[in-house]
Specification:
This is Sulfatase-modifying factor enzyme-like domain-containing protein. The chain is an alpha+beta fold and about 290 residues long. Helices cover about 15% and strands about 15% of the residues. It is built from 5 helices and 11 strands; from the N terminus they run E-E-E-H-H-H-E-H-E-E-E-E-E-E-H-E. A hairpin with a 4-residue loop joins strand 2 and strand 3. The longest helix has 15 residues.
Length: about 290
């Protein structure tokens, strides 16, 4: 993709082809304000490979790195921009440092809580609060963080373009990488899972709690393919139905056990640790302690 002579420099913009909104993260990078939605995926790919096939502003999930690369190829060819996944460092920069009392977590993000445990019974410890969404929620259902980004924590984990221990802040060759980082946790993650908010996963992995958002370098934005008209998701509006590709419709209300096996706690011989109704004992829950150095 071409590098444009004049680096793009606006506070925010919307990609005219996909409808994805971006906000300036720093002098070199823009980051998508929301996770990519099912409606946006359908605009680009004309497919609906999601487990929770709800359409509209619900987040894309059940996509591997290979699926995302096809999405990027199609979007970049249409726009002559060079959209990509964020790096680990960019995701951390967007989050900043934040501490949340465990009792308040449901007012901040869509995690594994009382309603999700009631519906899904994944078996891991859950937060003792209720965010009203047993599975995924429309993007933007919770307040933005201090930098104006939504759902960096919760809803769906987000694929990143390098590994968790990579300090170079450069993207790997997506199709050549066996493992890449995912970040932020999702609707099936409780207190134990959120002790580590970035971890590497196999790039071939697909499951119902795994999605993504986009980033783009300022010099890689085609100024003729963007708009200043920001159309924010209306989470109270009726959900737009995404046409279903034959054979891809999901009729169950919850993922099969295999879809989220990697998110389950290890089974032990200690009954207190296997009791899915027993929350963890600590009362203070901290996100991202590694950002304090």
């Amino acid at each position: 993709m071409p590098l444009y002579a004049a680096a793009f420099d606006k506070p925010s913009f919307i990609d005219s082809y996909s409808g994805i909104e971006f906000k300036k993260l720093n002098n070199k990078t823009y980051l998508a304000v929301y996770e990519v939605t099912q409606e946006q995926w359908y605009k680009v790919m004309n497919t609906a490979p999601f487990y929770f096939n709800k359409g509209g502003s619900y987040p894309v999930e059940s996509v591997s790195i290979g699926d995302i690369q096809k999405f990027l190829n199609t979007l970049n060819s249409a726009t002559q921009s060079n959209y990509r996944l964020p790096t680990v460092a960019e995701w951390k920069e967007a989050v900043g440092e934040i501490k949340i009392n465990r009792d308040d977590v449901c007012s901040y993000a869509n995690f594994y809580d009382i309603s999700s445990n009631t519906v899904n019974r994944f078996g891991n410890a859950y937060f003792e609060c209720d965010d009203r969404f047993p599975n995924t929620a429309p993007v933007g259902s919770f307040a933005a963080n201090s930098k104006g980004y939504y759902d960096l924590f919760g809803n769906v984990k987000e694929w990143l373009c390098n590994s968790e221990n990579d300090r170079t802040n450069t993207c790997a060759n997506l199709l050549g990488a066996a493992n890449l980082a995912v970040a932020g946790g999702g609707f099936s993650d409780g207190p134990k899972e959120m002790r580590k908010v970035i971890k590497d996963e196999r790039t071939s992995l697909r499951y119902a709690g795994l999605g993504f958002r986009l980033a783009v370098d300022t010099a890689s934005i085609n100024p003729n393919a963007v708009s200043d008209n920001i159309n924010r998701p209306n989470v109270l509006a009726p959900v737009t139905t995404v046409p279903v590709v034959p054979g891809e419709e999901n009729t169950q209300n919850t993922p099969p056990a295999s879809a989220l096996d990697n998110q389950r706690n290890d089974v032990t011989n200690n009954p207190s640790q296997n009791n899915q109704d027993e929350p963890l004992p600590e009362r203070k829950f901290k996100f991202l302690p590694f950002l304090r150095d």
